[in-house]
Amino acid sequence: MMQDIYVVGVGMTPFGKFRDKSIKDMTREAVTGALADAGFAAEHIDGAFFSNAVQGHMEGQHMIRGEIALREMGIQGIPVVNVENACASASTGFKLAVDFLKAGNGDCCLAVGAEKMYSDDRALMFAAFDSGWDVSNGEAVAQRLADLGAGVEEPEGSKSSKPYSVFMDVYAGFARLHMKTFGTTQEHFAAVSAKNHGHSVHNPLAQYRDSMSIDQVLAAPPITYPLTLPMCAPISDGAAAAVLCTGEGLKRLGIDRTRAIRVKAAVLRSGTDRAPEDHENHLTRLAALQAYEQAGLGPDDMSLAEVHDATAVGEVIQIENLGFVPFGEGGRASLRGETTIGGRIPVNTSGGLESKGHPVGATGIGQIFELVTQLRGEAGARQVDGAQNAIAENGGGLHGVEEAAACVTILGR
């Protein structure tokens, strides 16, 4: 019989802009924290999955990033696998760690994501995202995205004159399509952003910790309509790690079961050539259905969610895909407060990518850190009362009219 898998330790650095910290520094901080949280030493780790998306672009370090980052802290002589899957890298590494243990390759496995993205060279920094789609026909991809939002007028002065990630144009296309199809408004997206900035006030590891009102979000500098600056995830540095064990590993190492959180589902999918209006077959919708089936649970069983809000429209789309609201209702539900802590289904209690930060290769395990903290009842002022089951959705890249890859993970007591 296949063993249950548990998260027994988590560690995370603050997310932000850290000129004085290297990938090695941040990896060490996150992994040391996760091992201390688990209560055992690195020598008990049977395998490691190291996730990173842009170190090759930023620093020229390709091929053996994980072996280099981990050896100095004594993790060597075991399988180390490097994982690159755009913004879904860390959740992909986490899923592979689960599979490593289920396959009987060991009792304990490490999943870690680390990213150093911030640079004074702005052109280099923003160019890190340029290969997150098919580079062989980039102009055609850009035009297809522009066509998604055709018919939604861009007000004068609603586009930034400063450099920004090409993926903000991607999300603007998705946003305009949602507005055109469902009547969603810029205020709805602003409500998501204001909620997430409010949540991050209580997260000591978040990049931004100032609350914002809907009006402040709307009045902020524009990026590309309908997105303003606070609706968009910042450029971030940071790392996060998780230690996973089999049930046998828990017994052998004498780990406290009361703080062990069970992995109830871990699903990875790639996108398909669906039509833009075919919402039922969005890859994260299909991944969520698969995850719910694996876990024997449904949307109503979830106590909270962390979703990939690289922009506010991302959260609107994903809470629909996860089945928390009908298609087209994500913005209205957010404006009504249903996704706020204390609401019907709290979403992005960490502050989300918009406010907690988005070091892309670490983001997915950053979400796991939040879910584990909540399920243990250790989230302090942002704690969701009585949290029993929680879900994370993490997407990466673009292919066609959706993410190239997406992971959905369900954890529970």
TrEMBL record:
Presence of the UniProt keyword S-adenosyl-L-methionine in the record: no
EC annotation from Swiss-Prot or TrEMBL: 2.3.1.-
Domain annotation Thiolase C-terminal: ranges: 284-399
InterPro entries with a match to the protein in the record: Thiolase, Thiolase-like, Thiolase_C_2, Thiolase_N
The protein's enzyme class: transferase
SUPFAM superfamilies, alphabetized: Thiolase-like (SSF53901)
One Pfam family, short name: Thiolase_N
Thiolase N-terminal domain span: 5-210
Superkingdom of origin: Bacteria
Gene Ontology molecular function: any one: acyltransferase activity
Keywords: Acyltransferase, Transferase
PANTHER family associated with the record: ACETYL-COA C-ACETYLTRANSFERASE, NON-SPECIFIC LIPID-TRANSFER PROTEIN-LIKE 2
Name of the protein described by the UniProt record: Thiolase family protein
